[in-house]
């Protein structure tokens, strides 16, 4: 019997759709990879390295079939701070450790627990990052150095803008940055055929042509070559692991990169009807990608919702599209490195300003304020804390507020006093008696008459913590010594 060889179409039934989608994702990813790298204070090519690893390494692994990974705007603030504090060689160590932690957490089945993080904390984190990105990249658009702290960036903006008015070099730089933002915003109104080119790429290309055509005195991307920027961390870089500050940075990277990736996966799942994300496998895939990036001394990666949604909307059906997008990034970096040197830095700053603006969840804040002001307060407080302090501590403040709010809401307790005027006064407690409600409970009990017998009924309580139980026992002893009948405590 003659065996027929399977055709490429039969073996890869969605090759046409995935090929087309990969080109769209490549065009979306290219300016973002460069912009995130420059904003992070590292060579632009390192952004391409992370995009390549995110496409080829993470893209080949199971987890979320249509989600695309690469360098993310959400980590620029964290990366810039780490590079400034510990140096570029230490970045590889931080990213490598992040990847190993993610591999371990995925193997232990901890991926799904990241979904338990309050969405208000995550959105507050993104809002804070967005504000810092916008403020910092406005300085880059002006061609001047930004202050180190988030609050310093915002406070110093008015003076920086005023100084621009008298500068012959800052004005052209600002014009390129503002023009880039304008093109990205207005691109969605262009005819459908024109919009086949992603707005971010079109904006960077137009800015590059304008700077060349008019010989504008603006800074451009510094090119070192792909192999020139790949620097695996040496043994001296690993010596910094004894520094508690470096350990704190690793924890921050693990927490934020993992949460952002898995929240992105949940969002991407809502965009298509294909296979759902396997969260533990996706965390392992992110860990594998970050481990490789760490070995190469590149930027950390997360799943990126902009690239992922572009992938879905372009008609991708399998993981082949994201793998191919990584191949296109590799070919571009290998064959056209000189093209990077023509790109104006203010144009990349404009791309990041627009990306930072999109990170701020204006609609969610308004919705939460109408329906749940406590969650809105957590979101705003997290964002403000990140701007005023730093990324790690801001997120911890948000998490602490979220836990405190949940504990407060879970500790509902009701105290009912029944006094018929003749027998003992009956005090019925029901619900959850925790230390959070203890002051209110004790105030009500201590207000009871000292010359009457009392029955304290605890049978309606579903939970009594140690602090509350001890306080109730102490109150009963104090009341008993007042010369009345002992307080009678009834339990279930």
Lay out the secondary structure.
Blueprint: H1 8-11, H2 15-39, H3 44-60, E1 69-70, H4 76-86, H5 88-107, H6 119-142, H7 150-155, H8 157-164, H9 170-186, H10 199-213, H11 226-229, H12 235-238, H13 244-269, H14 279-296, E2 302-303, H15 305-313, H16 320-335, H17 345-359, H18 362-371, H19 373-388, H20 391-410, E3 413-418, E4 425-433, H21 438-446, E5 454-464, H22 466-480, E6 488-490
Parallel strand pairs: 4-5, 5-6
Antiparallel strand pairs: 1-2, 3-4
Helix pairs in contact: 2-3, 2-10, 2-15, 2-16, 2-17, 3-14, 3-16, 4-5, 5-13, 5-14, 6-8, 6-17, 6-19, 6-20, 9-10, 9-17, 13-14, 13-15, 18-19, 19-20, 21-22
Protein model, in words:
By secondary structure, the protein is α/β, with parallel strands linked by helices. It has two domains: 391 residues, no CATH class; 78 residues, Transcription Regulator spoIIAA. 63% of the residues lie in helices and 7% in strands. It has 22 helices and six strands. The protein has a four-stranded mixed sheet, with helices on one face. Strands 1-2 form a two-stranded antiparallel ribbon. Helix 21 links the parallel strand 4 and strand 5. Helix 2 runs antiparallel to helix 3, helix 4 packs across helix 5 and helix 13 crosses helix 14. The chain is elongated.
């Amino acid at each position: 019997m003659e065996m027929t060889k399977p055709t490429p179409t039969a073996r890869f039934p969605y090759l046409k759709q995935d090929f087309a989608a990969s080109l769209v994702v490549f065009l979306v990813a290219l300016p973002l990879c460069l912009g995130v790298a420059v904003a992070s204070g590292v060579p632009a090519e390192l952004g391409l390295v992370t995009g390549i690893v995110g496409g080829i390494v993470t893209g080949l692994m199971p987890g979320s079939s249509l989600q695309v990974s690469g360098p993310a705007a959400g980590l620029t603030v964290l990366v810039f701070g780490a590079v400034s504090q510990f140096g570029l060689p230490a970045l590889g160590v931080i990213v490598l450790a992040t990847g190993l932690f993610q591999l371990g957490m995925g193997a232990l089945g901890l991926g799904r627990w990241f979904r338990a993080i309050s969405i208000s904390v995550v959105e507050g984190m993104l809002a804070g990052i967005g504000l810092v990105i916008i403020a910092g990249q406005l300085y880059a658009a002006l061609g001047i150095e930004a202050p180190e702290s988030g609050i310093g960036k915002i406070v110093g903006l008015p003076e920086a803008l005023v100084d621009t008015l008298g500068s012959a070099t800052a004005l052209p730089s600002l014009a390129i940055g503002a023009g880039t933002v304008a093109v990205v915003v207005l691109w969605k109104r262009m005819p459908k055929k024109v919009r086949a080119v992603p707005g971010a790429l079109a904006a960077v290309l137009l800015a590059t042509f304008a700077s060349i055509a008019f010989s504008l005195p603006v800074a451009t991307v510094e090119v070192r070559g792909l192999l020139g920027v790949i620097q695996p961390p040496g043994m001296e870089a690993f010596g910094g692991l004894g520094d508690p500050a470096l350990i704190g940075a690793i924890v921050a990277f693990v927490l934020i990169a993992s949460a952002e990736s898995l929240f992105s996966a949940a969002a991407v799942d809502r965009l298509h009807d294909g296979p759902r994300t396997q969260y533990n496998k996706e965390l392992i895939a992110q860990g594998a990608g970050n481990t490789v990036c760490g070995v190469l001394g590149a930027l950390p990666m997360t799943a990126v919702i902009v690239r992922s949604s572009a992938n879905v909307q372009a008609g991708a059906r399998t993981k082949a599209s994201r793998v191919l997008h990584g191949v296109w990034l590799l070919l571009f970096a290998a064959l056209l490195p000189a093209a990077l040197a023509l790109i104006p830095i203010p144009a990349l700053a404009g791309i990041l300003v627009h990306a930072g603006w999109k990170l701020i969840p204006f609609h969610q804040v308004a919705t939460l304020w109408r329906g749940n002001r406590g969650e809105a307060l957590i979101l705003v407080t997290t964002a403000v804390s990140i701007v005023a302090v730093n990324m790690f501590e801001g997120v911890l403040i948000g998490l602490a507020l979220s836990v405190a709010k949940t504990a407060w809401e879970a500790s509902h307790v009701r105290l009912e006093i029944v006094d018929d005027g003749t027998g003992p006064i009956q005090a019925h407690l029901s619900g959850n008696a925790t230390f959070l409600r203890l002051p209110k409970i004790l105030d009500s009990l201590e207000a009871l008459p000292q010359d009457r017998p009392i029955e304290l009924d605890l049978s309606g309580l579903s939970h009594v913590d140690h602090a509350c139980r001890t306080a109730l026992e102490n109150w009963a002893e104090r009341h008993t010594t007042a010369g009345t009948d002992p307080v009678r405590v009834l339990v279930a």
